[in-house]
Structure to design on (390 residues):
């Protein structure tokens, strides 16, 4: 098969882009061909990238002509509003124009249904209804997300399928845990990893409050503990820069809060994590901490599972589904409960890395098999019915 992915893609700094790259490489290893169309032009893009979505001028027509000549069997959109930003509506119109040129089934993976609809409210629901209407099938990663999508209204239950976020180790980079410890002056500290883009819904302020509680009560020894915040604020474009500005204000607020609580010495912020450092951070970490206030699912949880790193997670959204039965969970927006879990975890010493795994582990091979089967299904269905969604 030939699969055209419509998604952010490396070298763009985007978690969904990284996910798409992992998916595309695994699909290619199964003997299929892939190409990519990105939301925005990317300097130094790989040869997989045909171009960027646009509805203006000759470049748009040239891209659609290039796609038509390549003749994909399936178009797979990897969607979140943050991934496409101001080109979200352009994406909807572009898909319509593409379908006008070539008859091809469209699948979309919806990465942030609950977050997008909570943030954008009615506008978010309209965007999702219109996107789903342009697809033969959509994928979500959790049953929580499936329920949220159906509650939007006007979306058939049968049109959405749950395929978990894969637990896949990225390729080993050049960095080692020892390199990172030296670079960030961590010595032999016990590392608890808060990985990923800094965002107001990630609960870092609750984590700071939990550290303050532990320090005040003496419930756990923190002298040799470091919370490594490995990530930066997600870069945005156009009008969506207001959300980047909001997250930058949030980052500054968290640091200010840590100073006032006299716990800033327990934090280490790394900025954006290059690909060469990802594996080393998970190998260095004693645990991953996800104090999220709002989320649908977590690719970070999948990474932690792939490295057999215990996860301390809130039960918000799909995390409650992923970590059902774990002793290291706590309610969202509950620093006291988070402090209790942190204290208990630190008290038991470095655990066996097989101690905690996801309730529904999803290895990459299984996810790729399910995704390829879905591609085949929508192709057969479209060929049988002889029509495509407009």
């Amino acid at each position: 098969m030939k699969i055209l992915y419509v998604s952010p893609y490396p070298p763009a700094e985007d978690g969904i882009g990284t996910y798409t790259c992992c998916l595309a490489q695994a699909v290619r290893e199964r003997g299929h061909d892939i190409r990519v169309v990105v939301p925005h032009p990317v300097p130094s893009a790989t040869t997989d990238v045909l171009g960027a979505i646009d509805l203006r001028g000759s470049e748009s027509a040239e891209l659609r002509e290039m796609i038509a000549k390549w003749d994909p069997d399936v178009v797979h959109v990897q969607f979140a509003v943050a991934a496409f930003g101001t080109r979200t509506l352009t994406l909807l119109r572009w898909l319509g124009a593409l379908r006008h040129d070539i008859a091809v089934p469209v699948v979309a993976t919806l990465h942030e249904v609950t977050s997008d609809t909570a943030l954008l409210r009615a506008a978010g629901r309209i965007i999702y209804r219109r996107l789903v209407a342009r697809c033969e099938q959509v994928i979500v990663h959790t049953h929580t997300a499936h329920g949220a999508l159906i509650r939007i209204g006007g979306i058939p239950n049968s049109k959405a399928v749950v395929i978990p976020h894969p637990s896949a180790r990225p390729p080993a980079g050049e960095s080692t845990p020892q390199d990172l410890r030296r670079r960030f002056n961590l010595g032999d500290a016990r590392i608890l990893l808060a990985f990923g883009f800094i965002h107001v819904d990630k609960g870092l302020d609750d984590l700071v409050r939990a550290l303050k509680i532990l320090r005040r009560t003496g419930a756990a020894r923190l002298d040799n503990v470091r919370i490594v915040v490995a990530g930066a604020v997600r870069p945005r474009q156009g009008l969506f820069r207001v959300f980047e500005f909001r997250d930058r204000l949030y980052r500054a607020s968290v640091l200010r809060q840590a100073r006032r609580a006299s716990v800033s010495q327990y934090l280490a912020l790394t900025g954006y994590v290059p690909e060469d450092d990802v594996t080393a951070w998970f190998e260095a970490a004693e645990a991953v901490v996800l104090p999220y206030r709002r989320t649908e699912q977590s690719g970070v949880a999948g990474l932690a599972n792939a490295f057999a790193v215990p996860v301390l997670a809130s039960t918000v959204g799909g995390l409650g589904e992923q970590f059902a039965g774990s002793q290291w969970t706590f309610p969202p927006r509950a620093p006291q409960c988070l402090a209790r879990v942190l204290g208990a975890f630190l008290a038991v010493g470095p655990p066996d890395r097989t101690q905690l795994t996801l309730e529904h582990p999803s290895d990459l091979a299984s996810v790729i098999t399910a995704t390829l089967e879905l591609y085949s299904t929508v192709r057969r269905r479209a060929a049988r019915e002889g029509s495509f969604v407009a």
Remarks:
- The chain has two domains: 2-166+363-385, 177-347.
- Residues 2-166+363-385 form a domain with the Rossmann fold fold (CATH 3.40.50.2000).
- Residues 355-360 have pLDDT under 50 and may be disordered.
